[in-house]
Amino acid sequence: MKNLKVILVAALMAVSAPAFAQFANSGSSSSSADTEDYNRVGITYENVNLSPKGGDGYGLNGFGVNYIHGFSVSSELPLFVETGLKFSGVFHSESEDTEEVKTTFMYLAVPVNVAYKFAVGENMSIQPYLGLNLKFNLVGKEKFSDSDYPEDDYEINVFDKDDMDPTWKRFQLGWHIGAGLNYKQFYVGLSYGTDFIKIAKKVNTGTFSIGVGYNF
């Protein structure tokens, strides 16, 4: 699954290759793309994969809502620095016989990206980007239940030292790469990234997202 996500991102990035070649040869693609600041609101499907070293990993699926502001850094080139705020919630559930474990994570992220718009037609552009991701984990809990013994149900908070020792990290720093397609005010894009600062010792995370947005 992880390889498929990387392939999807690489495929969308590859779509921009013809535009880059046109830009390199003539410069017309960059000059025809919009160089104005922009705002964007969007929603995303999120898949977060937790991979403990030497253990079984699992994926959490959910959604995200985000706001992005793109700051133009040149009046001649469609080069931008993006930042904003994203709230995400992802969930996982697995069961065996009468036992069930439900996992919930919610977090805020602040991206800082460098993006470039390649014009590929009237009112259309492809926008690859590369950036860092500052993440603050708000909720991280696992609920254990057994339908035969409901009185024994319990919940742990992975950020609470009374439940987890050592606790998982509230703050993380990571990177991501992605690309989007702009058509008039509408946007569709995808990205993939991992964390430099692991959420827990020997636990790797990878995040894939795909979503739609509106530019204004």
In words, what does this structure look like?
- The chain is mainly β and 216 residues long.
- The protein has three helices and ten strands; from the N terminus they run αααββββββββββ.
- Strands 1-2-3-4-6-8-9-10 form an eight-stranded antiparallel beta barrel.
- A hairpin with a 6-residue loop joins β2 (58-72) and β3.
- 28% of the residues are buried.
- The model is unreliable at 15-31 (pLDDT under 50).
Compact description:
The protein is mainly beta. It contains 3 helices and 10 strands.
Q: On the 0-100 scale, what is the average pLDDT?
A: 88
Count the E strands.
Answer: 10
Query: Which structural class should the secondary elements be placed in?
Result: mainly beta
Cα distance spanning the termini: 34 Å
Work out the radius of gyration: 20 Å
Strand content: over 45%
Helical stretch tally? 3
The share of residues in helices is: 10-25%
Q: Give the ordered list of helices and strands.
A: HHHEEEEEEEEEE
Low-confidence stretches: 15-31
The largest sheet, given as strand count, sense and whether it forms a barrel, is:
8 strands, antiparallel, barrel
Question: So what's the overall shape?
Answer: elongated
